[in-house]
Specification:
The chain has 3 helices and 18 strands. By secondary structure, it is mostly beta strands. Strand 4 and strand 5 form a beta hairpin.
Length: 334
């Protein structure tokens, strides 16, 4: 009997390590990941990112900045903790024929676990412009002022500053929600206020699988554009532009067309390469598009329409766009 008890104790002792070696089951991830507020401004240390993008069309907030032609861009960003500064350059086709669009940005990007808060400012620079002037007659628009009655259709330099807030919340591995508020006190140097507001979402249907690089995303935004300086004349968007608040005939300036814009598309990321196929559209009319862009192709019709100066542009409207981007960061080489 004693030998049987000793044998049982020995068997239990030998089996105990096996039971202890069983790995603990991982905790289930929450359905919604909650923000983790902190003040670790510099904890992330130094980081950088750079890359290039090739697009069949360069569409910004529903308007083509490349006249529906292919475009390319390069960018670089330096980060230290939450702070960052960036530089990007894109070839464009705009009314003033600038050499390029150069974006210079800086801001602070707190990371609270799944929640990222991005506060910053960007300077949109358009070097080497040719201001457009409306003079009427046989040559309705020129790049120089040759009459005291001529009105500018563009600013001498459309470069301007915009401040923004871009939050993003990764609720879980499958869904990320975001938004954007961007305000410019002097949009395109017309002395017009602008406010862009947007909500967006991204779904990763095959997260944590071999196909996790596939995602579907979309955005809906509203672009409010205000009234320009009176030196740019009146606007048919605002029928009462010729009357001051006192009722006396005069001018209030040039009222731009506000509008809604949206996009939806799918992208696939493989290592450092991302392919994106996207549909863009807006409710901006062709007349409103000409008003906001000063598209030179509409100048002749505008000069013939002497009552309102109304014309049209094809730089807005629905469009499918394909893009291929290559992105690197310090993590790429670790």
């Amino acid at each position: 009997m004693k030998s049987i008890l000793l044998a049982g104790v020995a068997a239990f002792a030998l089996a105990a390590p096996a039971f202890a070696a069983e790995p603990a089951k991982p905790e289930a991830k929450p359905l919604i990941a909650l923000p983790e507020p902190n003040v670790d401004f510099l904890g992330a240390g130094f980081d950088y990112a750079y890359g290039a993008k090739f697009m069949s069309d360069y569409i910004v907030r529903g308007i083509s900045n490349s006249a529906h032609r292919p475009a390319g861009s390069v960018y670089g960003e330096l980060r230290y903790g939450w702070f960052y500064t960036g530089l990007a350059a894109t070839n464009v086709t705009l009314a003033t024929s600038p050499l390029a669009e150069v974006d210079i940005s800086a801001g602070i990007r707190p990371t609270w676990g799944p929640l990222t808060l991005d506060f910053g400012a960007v300077y949109y620079a358009y070097p080497s412009n040719h201001q457009q002037w409306f003079i009427g007659g046989a040559i309705p628009v020129t790049t120089f002022k040759n009459s005291y009655t001529a009105l500018p259709t563009t600013a001498f330099d459309p470069s301007y500053i915009e401040i923004y807030f871009k939050p993003s919340w990764a609720l879980n591995d499958y869904l990320t929600l975001g938004g954007q508020l961007a305000y410019a006190p002097n949009w395109n140097r017309y002395n017009a206020h602008s406010l862009y507001s947007e909500i967006n979402a991204k779904v990763t249907p095959f997260a944590n699988t071999d196909y996790s690089g596939l995602s579907i995303s979309g955005a809906f935004g509203h672009y409010y554009l205000g009234m320009s300086d009176a030196s740019y004349g009146g606007s048919y968007i605002d029928p009462d532009y010729a009357f001051l608040s006192t009722g006396i005939l005069g001018t209030k300036g040039f009222k731009f067309a506000s509008y809604n814009t949206w996009n939806v598309g799918a992208s696939y990321n493989w290592n450092v390469v991302t392919l994106d196929l996207r549909y863009y559209d807006s409710n901006l009319t062709r007349a409103g598009c000409f008003l906001n862009t000063s598209d030179p192709s509409g100048n002749l019709v505008a000069s013939l329409n002497t009552l309102t100066g109304q014309s049209s542009s094809s730089w807005c409207g629905s469009r499918f766009v394909a893009s291929l981007s290559v992105d690197f960061s310090s993590a790429t080489f670790k």
